[in-house]
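User: Reviewer 2 asked us to show a designed sequence for the structure in our supplementary figure. I'm pasting the structure tokens here. Could you produce the per-position amino acids so we can include them in the response letter?
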């Protein structure tokens, strides 16, 4: 019998939304990899990878990313609300 997920995990949904916003902006800015993004933003590569997975971003992290990715108002709205 297949497993059925009865409840949704808001933390996972929020992490997924933030991850998709960051990856979309990375593509728009022609940044090839997370490694390149980490170097440009001044964030440790393993730290960036972990935060992309679990969504535990701080304001300082997002500020560093904003310097590189230049989020617009809609992107910030999605990051703060955690929904599309």
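Assistant: Here is a per-position design you can include in the supplement:
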């Amino acid at each position: 019998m297949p497993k059925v997920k009865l409840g949704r995990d808001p933390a996972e949904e929020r992490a997924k939304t933030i991850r998709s916003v960051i990856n979309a902006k990375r593509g728009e800015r022609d940044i090839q990899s997370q490694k390149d993004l980490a170097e440009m933003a001044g964030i440790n590569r393993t730290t960036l990878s972990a935060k992309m997975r679990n969504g535990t971003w701080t304001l300082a992290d997002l500020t560093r990313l904003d310097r590189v990715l230049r989020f617009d108002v809609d992107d910030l709205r999605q990051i703060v609300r955690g929904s599309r």
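For the response letter, you might also mention the following. Residues 10-81 form a domain with the 434 Repressor (Amino-terminal Domain) fold (CATH 1.10.260.40). The mean pLDDT is 91.
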